[in-house]
Amino acid sequence: MEVSGAALRANLRRVAQAARPRAGVLPMLKGDAYGLGMEGVLAMFAAERPWGIGVAAVAEGERLRGLGWTGRVVVFAPAPPDEYARAADAGLTLALSSLDAVRGWAGAARARGRRLAFHAEVDTGMGRAGLPWHQAGAWGPAVAASAGDLLAWEGCFTHFHSADEPDLGATDAQHARFTQALEALPRPEGLLVHSANSAASLRRAGYGGDLVRPGIFLYGGTAGPGTDPEPVASVRARVGLVREVEAGSTCGYGATYTAPGPERWGTLCIGYGDGLPRALGAAGGEALVRGRRVPLRGRVSMDMTVVDLTDVPDARPGDVATLIGRDGGEEITVERVAAQAGTISYEVLTGLAPRLPRVYRDAPGTFSPGAA
After folding, report:
1. Are the C-beta atoms of residues 56 and 75 closer than 8 Å to each other?
2. Are residues 42 and 148 in the same domain?
3. Taking residues 29-57, what's their average pLDDT?
4. Which phi and psi angles does 302 have, rounded to 5°?
5. Domain containing residue 89
6. Residue 207 catalytic?
7. Once rounded to an integer, what is the mean pLDDT over residues 246-264?
8. Residue 370, in any domain of the structure
9. Which of 217, 223, 127 has its CA nearest to residue 168?
10. Each residue of 183-223: pLDDT tens digit?
11. Which of 30, 207, 257, 360 is catalytic?
């Protein structure tokens, strides 16, 4: 996998420019930076001096600390109670979705003799986590009382479920619910309000929040109509073998492809063990070899994939095949691969396995703690 640092930073700046002036940017690095590699991506984003970094799990926050990041880290998925101590020791900020979680986090603060920060999540329709928006007048004072002097109620947020859809009506309705909930809360002084993911950051200017939380757009995935990002990730493999086959030759497990005539096949040293979607074999998957588009043949195997090189007579072992990215005037986007595989760009990128080396282009070098 090749990762373009210039494209990553350009996408981050575009989100920052689209949001309201002085809004902080909280890039999401969960899922190993959406599959692109946390350490390499952190080095690229640190130079932009983001407000903080968002992750999904305590273990991801601990990894950031291990890499030397000393800035804010917000853990957005509900952390199990037995991980509160680890989160506190790592100096992480938790997103809390229940009064029990607030009390548990306060207990961790009491045990350490120092205040811990949290962001309260408001459920406006996503349904995964969060306190109910229409009961904010009841739970708000209880959260404040449970936090007391032990916790710093730093932020309050919600998450949109359809901000990347053509019709933004549902998103606007969620935002109205969130606004209503905020009006009912006993808001601490300086409370940071945020709701915008990649799509809402770009399509609704962050709804005027104090922070925006971009994810997929940073990594080259579209975030709804009119939000085409700079392509970031390219996936390439070597042609390991080229051979001539006769009519009637079959290919792959299940022999799902039979050559209708003499063909020239190339075996690529990549498969679903590297994260190449297995579904591509039957869904019109393709690759670029010497700047030409060639079809995949048969099923994708764990470690090998066959392409038809009949129309590329000069192809040789050692040539580079591009599965995602550009070669000459041709390009295969991550969105195209996702559509062929019947999934979304998030799953394609996060599914790319560690066996694929990550190569960072236009990178500032290794991450320096001084940039945190």
Report:
1. yes
2. yes
3. 95
4. -60, -40
5. 2-219
6. no
7. 97
8. no
9. 223
10. 999 989 999 999 999 999 999 987 889 999 999 999 999 99
11. 30
Cβ(352)–Cβ(338) below 8 Å: no
CATH number assigned to the domain comprising residue 83: 3.20.20.10
* In contact, 313 and 352? CB cutoff 8 Å: no
Structure tokens at 293: 């588009």
Q: DSSP class of residue 258? A: E
d(CA 163, CA 171): 6
Which one is catalytic: 219, 253, 272, 360?
253
> Checking DSSP bridges between strand 72-75 and strand 52-55, what pairing results, if any?
parallel
Collect all residues with Cβ–Cβ distance below 8 Å to 350 and sequence separation of at least 6: 31, 32, 34, 35
Q: Which two tokens stand for residue 118?
A: 């949290």
Nearest to 156 by CA among 199, 125, 124, 195: 195
**Number of neighbours of residue 151 by Cβ within 10 angstroms:** 23
Q: pLDDT for 287-321, tens place per residue?
A: 999 999 999 999 999 999 999 999 999 999 999 99
Q: What angle do CA 195, 210, 97 make, to 5 degrees?
A: 45
Are 87 and 120 members of one domain? yes
What is the predicted pLDDT for the residue at 205? 86
Q: Which residues contact 144 (CB under 8 A, 6 or more apart)?
A: 153, 186, 188
Nearest to 321 by CA among 345, 338, 304: 304
